[in-house]
Amino acid sequence: MNAPVRKISPYIFHGQTTSLCSQCFSLVPAKIIFDDGNVYYLKRCKVHGVEKALISSDIAYYKLAQDYIKPGDRPHVFQTRTEEGCPYDCGLCPDHEQHSCLGLIDVNEACNLSCPVCFADSSTGKTYHRPLAEIEKMMDALCASEGEAYLLQLSGGEPTIHPQIIEIIKAAKQRPIRHIMLNTNGIRIAQDEEFVKQLAAFKPGIEVYLQFDSLRPSVLKNLRGADLTRIRRDALEALERHNVSTTLVVVVKRGQNEDELGDIINHALKWKCVRGITFQPVQDAGRNEGFDPAADRFVLSDIRKAIIAAGTPFTAGDIIPLPCNPESISIGYALRNGDKIAPITSYFPREMLVEALPNAITFEKYPDLHKQIMNFFSLSTVECNNPERLDALLCCLPQVPVPEGMGYENIFRIAIVEFLDAHNFCISRVKRSCVHFVTPAGQIIPFDTYNLFYRDAAARKRMAMSKGRATA
Ligand code: SF4
Ligand code: SF4
Question: Which of 67, 96, 108, 443 could form a disulfide with 156 if both were Cys (CB 3.0 to 4.6 A apart)?
């Protein structure tokens, strides 16, 4: 008699994490599986059954990201205690594994747009502006946690319409904060020349983080509720006139703008003031009208592949995992001369990136990078004694020396930043989160858990549901 044949699993079981049920937000076990060339979480909720969420469309890159994990860089102080367990103790609680590479402060809820996609759920119907004194306390909480904070983003709402936004920036300038960014939809920048002059007057300069999702009116209407093409152009012209460093931020939604990422990179290179682009898959948080997770999700690896396929100078080796949070952030750095770029990230060896602390690169140790810089700028030699460094957006990247007379305008960077929502939530990824909101109570909370569980009444209701103390 023949023994029955054992069945082979249709997928590779790679590992296990804890995720969330996307319906009741309960913590649920999630198998990490490789299936059909993709990485999925296979989740099982006792009430809502099995759910399969796409995590990555590139198994090789998913595995590579895990090789980039480096030792955590802990904050000076923690603001809460570890009591109920992650994600209910934010934060930061002592169980968190990464400091705030980037701190965010919402200066208001008021906005001059009502975007169909807004993780903050802001709108023209909201009027609240946070008092300056409270914002200063929030800055102090960030500085106490960080010692010297690397990067503060002033966000909202629309921060440029806060009546005291200039005073807020001045207050940030008086504190130990290396870089300040102003997140904006660009409307005031496009319409108020005097305001742009005030921004340009800050020394050292601040950077504008400009919403720039698409070159197509139809996409802008879908994501922002209005055709902002002219606003975007006028804003960039004003920033260019006044030489204000600018990063474009592009929210990517499947079926809308995934086919124009290369065009956006080429467009960015026409503007001297643009130092880089951050691409973000839509996070299913806040207001996200008409979002269908089965059809609309476009994950980090999809964006990376789309950029590589678009024919820009960035190839696969040039967009690498960011060591402090490698599954959630990819970065690519390039030298820039006018509208010409030459990526250099592939010259950063993995071993050097995953060292505990970021280092300045010396050319003796990295001769290929030295050669690349000399060739690109047609120089016969590049000395390391120029105190100027190619400034990294995030603190765990190495600093690269630049030739005499060159500076920030000679670097161009792209970043892909994927935040977690109830679909892709992963307990180990969230503990490595390095993008954090500061609250008026002085807490510091990862972007991901803040929007899911802490931001507002709706988030707190999700938290109660997650703990089994409320129903939908
Ligand atoms: S996300 Fe971080 S701060 Fe929040 S509970 Fe988990 S470990 Fe603590
Ligand atoms: S996404 Fe920005 S511009 Fe749009 S409503 Fe929200 S805060 Fe305002």
Answer: 108
